[in-house]
Write a structure and sequence with these properties.
16% strand; 55% helix; ten-stranded mixed beta sheet; 416 residues
């Protein structure tokens, strides 16, 4: 008998055995179903969150160094008292870095103020986020215009009262009118709209450009005290092509220590942050969640594996006479072994498919009824089926091996 025929015949016999005991087979795979569901639903949620978080991190600015007062950290023992009295980044430091930092492709300044109120004719919008920025900001951050233009360096130098507004600000303030070259009022000052941003939506950090207004930072002096921490001033620096952020940070450290006249043995009184810090923190978080998913699902799969093994031993015992007859008619050991291995693997894969089906149903309900977006990847499907097949192989090997080693005479005698 050829190998492919052995495999196909043993598969058909295994399939027939499962169809004969449908209820018992269904109950046996529930453990695998729950285990696969637990593992894959955790990985699906983690993958979806990771995708959105990494997208949000890129919106903050990939390959950009942030000069700020407070360092970014995910550590539980954050020594905030060491940073409390640090000075905030200043305009003079921004100008110094822009002039002297040789490794920088672009340098920008940013400050902000929350809960700003805008007025246009009879329309009013509250709780808008105001951003005072330099013209090079668009070289470091993903700012996408729907219409109009962004303000230039000349607009900043002349302190022109111009503004670029977010999508929702445009809709809420100007309704169906064309917002370009319209004038709105903010803190009693009139501003001309020269650009409107594309609709963005809220990112994972809860921020969105849809409800923001951008003005030249030279105009921000009217509304913000840049020595007040609430204005959150920061200097953004992007390295030139081929220069690493580490090299740029080293140069920035030297420039800032010189500007702030820090002694050679003194500690830095500023923070140089980069998105890699956030990414490392998220990597640690996702690793912990993934491990928890493996542990929770692993126990269920272990119980399911023992359930399948127990069923296979029962199946071997019930079919002892059939095994004896098959062997007495010349069936090789491999044929008997494959029958029960196929049965075990099919049981386990069926449980895996049921688990995948539950995950898909949960994803459809969550995506339909909530604003959360979950995505089921092909890699998770492959992982689920691979785990199922492996569990079936391991669970069925001992019963299958026991059946293959039976003596045909003893098997028929025991059955009789």
């Amino acid at each position: 008998m050829k190998l492919w025929q052995l495999v196909s015949d043993s598969f058909l016999m295994a399939w027939q055995a499962l169809r004969t005991h449908r209820l018992r087979s269904f109950l046996s795979v529930l453990g695998i179903t729950i285990g696969i569901f637990a593992i894959i639903i955790v990985f699906t949620v983690v993958d979806s969150l990771e995708f959105k978080l990494r997208g949000s991190v890129q919106e903050i600015g990939n390959n950009v160094v942030f000069v700020q007062k407070w360092p970014w950290s995910f550590k539980s023992d954050y020594p905030w008292w060491k940073y409390l009295n640090r000075p905030l980044p200043s305009i003079s430091e921004f100008n110094g870095i822009k002039t002297n930092c040789k490794s920088a492709e672009a340098v920008a300044f940013r400050c902000s103020r929350n809960s700003v109120t805008l007025h246009f004719q009879s329309q009013t919008m509250k709780n808008i986020n105001l951003m005072g920025i330099s013209s090079d900001y668009v070289k470091l951050q993903p700012v996408r215009l729907q219409s109009g233009r962004f303000f230039s360096g000349a607009d900043g130098l002349s302190a022109s009262p111009v503004a670029v507004i977010g999508y929702e600000v445009s809709k809420g303030l100007f309704k169906n009118q064309n917002p370009l070259l319209q004038n709105f009022r903010m803190y009693g000052q009139s501003y001309c709209v020269i650009g409107v941003l594309k609709k963005e939506g809220e990112n994972m950090f809860g921020s969105s450009s849809d409800y923001q207004v951008y003005i030249p930072f030279q105009q921000a002096y009217r509304f913000m005290n840049l020595k007040d921490e609430q204005s959150d001033p920061a200097i953004l620096v992007k390295p030139k092509l081929g220069i690493s952020t580490a090299q740029t940070m080293s140069e920035l450290r030297g420039l800032l220590r010189s500007q702030r006249r820090i002694r050679p043995n003194g500690e830095d009184n500023f923070a140089l942050n980069e998105t890699r810090i956030l990414q490392q923190g998220f990597d640690d978080l996702f690793r912990m969640v993934g491990t928890a998913g493996w542990i929770i699902g692993g126990f269920s799969i272990l119980v399911g594996g023992f359930g399948i093994a127990n069923m296979m031993f029962v199946s071997v015992r019930e079919r002892t006479s059939l095994i004896g007859i098959q062997k007495s008619l010349g069936s090789p050991k491999i044929f008997i072994l494959l029958q029960f291995l196929w049965e075990s693997i099919l049981l386990s894969i069926t449980g895996g498919l049921m688990g995948i089906g539950l995950v898909v149903a949960i994803i459809i309900m969550v995506n339909s009824w909530t604003e959360v977006s979950l995505q089921f990847s092909a890699s998770n499907t492959q992982l689920a089926l691979s785990i199922s097949a492996l569990v079936g192989l391991l669970s069925g090997f001992l019963p299958a091996y026991h059946a293959a080693q039976m003596d045909p005479v003893d098997a028929i005698r025991v059955a009789a």
